[in-house]
Amino acid sequence: MKFSRRNWLRSASTMTASGLFVNAGISKFYENSHTPKTGEIILNSNENAWGPSPNVLKAIQQSSLQSNRYPWQTRQILIDRISQLEGIPADHILLGAGSTEILQLAGLAFGAHGGTIVSSYPTFPLMMQHATGFNAKWIKVDLDRNFNHDFEALKKAAQNAQLIYISNPNNPLGTLSDKSTLLDFCRSLPSTTIAFIDEAYMEFTDQGLKSSLAKEILSYPNLIVARTFSKIYGMAGLRVGYAYAHPDLIEKMKHYHIGFEINMPITSLHAAIAATEDQQFLQDCKQANSSVRNKVGRSFTDWKVEYVPSQTNFIYFRTERFDPALVELLAKHQVLIRDYADQPGYARVSMGTEEQIDIFLSKAKSFLA
Ligand SMILES: Cc1ncc(COP(=O)(O)O)c(C=O)c1O
Fold first, then answer.
1. N or C: which end of the chain has fewer CB within 10 A?
2. Which pLDDT tens digit goes with each residue over 7-54?
3. What CATH number belongs to 55-276?
4. Higher pLDDT, 316 or 27
5. What is the pLDDT of residue 36?
6. Given a cut of 60, is residue 369 above it in pLDDT?
7. Residue 1: pLDDT band by 50, 70, 90 thresholds?
8. Mutate to test the pocket of ligand 1, among 42, 120, 171 (most ligand atoms within 8 A of CB)
9. CA of 356 to the centre of ligand 1 (A)
10. What residue owns the CA closest to ligand 1's atom 2?
11. Which pLDDT value is given to residue 37?
């Protein structure tokens, strides 16, 4: 991994100079959020500490009465709802039990039995880790000096690949690739290579879904765009994700599905439908998230902790200014963040409520070396 100290510092100062550290204020909704019952502050899985919307809870309760029924119809209602929201035909939408299932199906459809999948590294590795268990080959391409996808290097690596996986924004870095650059890159790929864009965190970005490639699937048949209800919708425990793609690609992915497409609880499907009807909740989450993200950024800058400016609900940072046992020490104090065996010296903290983030910051400060 080519991390340069100079670039880290530049990233941090650019963020300050561009005035991104604006305190968005505290809304009623923000005050009502709470810490998990176990007492642990969970900042290691990029979940949404404010979710889900009250609409979702009501829908789960009401739809639980239909638990004796298979969810055929409900599935279609959700597909139609997503189709209507984004203006993409229903036959271009595939539902999954979280976007994890979409990653599984795509990895198998295009990677299993000797296929090649290319991705940047570091990235969210789930699809590739799974597909390599089914005889796929995984080619990892280093990020560029500014922690962005290196599209030239990816293009070279993708020449004989069946699929290229791009997490945009990229987990764990939090960086967003520019829409037109990404689209040009997809168009430059061989006609036999599928571009899989994982937009799990897209709704958190400054431009929100305006930066999405979803609509491009209508003119580019080799494109799959995955989304999830786990992140901005705050429904990680309900397991609903989806993909946009040409029906031919959807057919290939469905081939690896056990069938019936009813592997999501009827309550989760109703919850997702209700979630789409509370767009204000998404706005509130986005605002609360950027407020705490700015707060963490300000503290890191004060402490001279180098971090990657993030467009998501997590921040990737360098741990050298802290006690080497930072992650373990925080865990002892019930604050869980994430580190990576293959990325020593770095860690990722997910955003939480202001109360949770204040605790994280005060504990982290006490572990400054
Ligand atoms: C980039 C990315 N894609 C997909 C997922 C899977 O999310 P889910 O299966 O909950 O939709 C995650 C989860 O953290 C993620 O970070």
1. C
2. 443 343 333 222 222 223 333 433 344 445 468 999 999 999 998 999
3. 3.40.640.10
4. 316
5. 52
6. yes
7. very low
8. 171
9. 22
10. 200
11. 45
Q: What is residue 175's three-state secondary structure?
A: strand
Both tokens of 142, joined, read 């280093």
**Where are the chain's structural domains?**
5-51+280-366, 55-276
Confidence (pLDDT) at 268: 98
Is the pLDDT at 176 greater than 60, yes or no?
Answer: yes
Nearby residues of 164 by Cβ (< 8 Å), 6 or more positions away: 117, 118, 119, 154, 158, 189, 193, 194, 195, 196
- Can you tell me the distance from the alpha carbon of 157 to that of 46, in angstroms, rounded to the nearest whole number? 29
Ligand 1 centroid–CA 327 distance in Å is 22
> For a substitution probing ligand 1, which of 198, 235, 238, 351 has the most ligand atoms within 8 Å of its CB?
198
Distance 73 CA to ligand 1 centre (A): 26
> What would the two tokens of residue 143 be?
């990020």
Tokens of 105: 């199906």
Question: Is the dihedral angle over the CA atoms 148, 150, 155, 157 positive or is it negative?
Answer: negative
Please list every protein residue whose CB sits less than 6 Å from any atom of ligand 1.
46, 98-100, 124, 167, 171, 198, 200, 228, 230, 236, 241
CA of 170 to the centre of ligand 1 (A): 11
pTM of the predicted protein model: 0.91
CATH of region 5-51+280-366: 3.90.1150.10
